[in-house]
Structure formats: C-alpha cells, structure tokens
C-alpha cells in the first residue's frame, strides 16, 4: 500500500510538469509479465509527436505529427512491418488555420494523394460546426464536390471548453444522431440517441493519472491501473 502511494506521488510530480514529459510508454500486465502496448512521444510544448502501437504480430500502426509555430500542420499514418523493418504509408492529413490560429480545415489523403475527406471547421461563441465532405471508396486527386457525401457535426461546449452535446446530421440520415456528455469529478457519462434506434448511456471513470492528465492538458488516455503500467521519460 505504502509503495503504491509513493508511486502515485512520483507520477503526479511528473504529470505536474506536462511540458517536460518526453514520452509515456504503456505496458499490459498479465500474470506478472509486462508487454509493451504503445508509446506516445511529446515535444517540449506538450504537442503529441508520435503514437506507436505494439502487439500485432503482422503490423502495428504508427502516427506521426509535425508542427509549425505550435500548430499541427501534418499527420501521417503508416503500418510498421517488423520483419521487413519498414513502415507503409496508409493516410496523411494536412491542416489549415485562420489568422487567429484556429483550425479551419483538415484534408485527409490516401497513400496515393487522393482525397479521402475534407473537414471544414466553423467557430462560434460556445459551439463549433464541422462540415465533412467525403468520397468514400471513390477518392480522387480532383474530387467532384457535387458527388461528396456531406455530414454536419454541431458541437456545444461548456465554460471549461468541454464538449457537452454533439448533433450529427446528414441527408443520408433519417434523423440526427445526438451525443450528450455530463461531467463529474470522478468521470463522465456519454448518452447516445438516434443510433440504430437504440438509446445508450456509457459511463467512464477517471483514474488518478487521468485526472492529472486532464488538469495538465496532456493528450494521453490512461487505462486500467490494475492491468496497465506506465513508464515516463522526460526532458
């Protein structure tokens, strides 16, 4: 018990210095045997540079991000094949911003540079509207906007900039999908309405590390502390 308390205090100190965290490695603990699940790397400003997954014998996804003046401008997804020691490009995204450094558009490309989707962002006082145009399996380097499927997500935020409601609509939907979020100090609930005609409420409980991550705005989801262990490297 005393050892666990000391460990949590030590990790809390590390998480309290979010700008100094260089990487977090997650291990799964099964019958006392640790195996690596994923590693996430950050720059000195706390931006996520890399997320690499482990455990699949054939290939594992790696996501890399590039930043300019603190803003993400490029994200690359590739599948790493250990036997060939190579990472095969799958998709990549480019980001555009307005003069106030707010994201205005993300363009997702396939490995051959064909456009998978374009997502436009529009900001208002307490909400954000995302308009996504996608071409599915007929991605093209010169997409026909008249042939795009259009999806609109209206996202409402509270004073802490946490999403509290999402309304998803499209000409392809019979009715909108609705997500409602409610927060407590211990976690949050997510209520789904309109999905497959069944309403569902999902509950998520924060562990102590996740509370620290949220407080210090660390882009990392900590799993079950009984099943997972974490290793920190910092600048």
UniProtKB/TrEMBL annotation:
This is Lipoprotein.
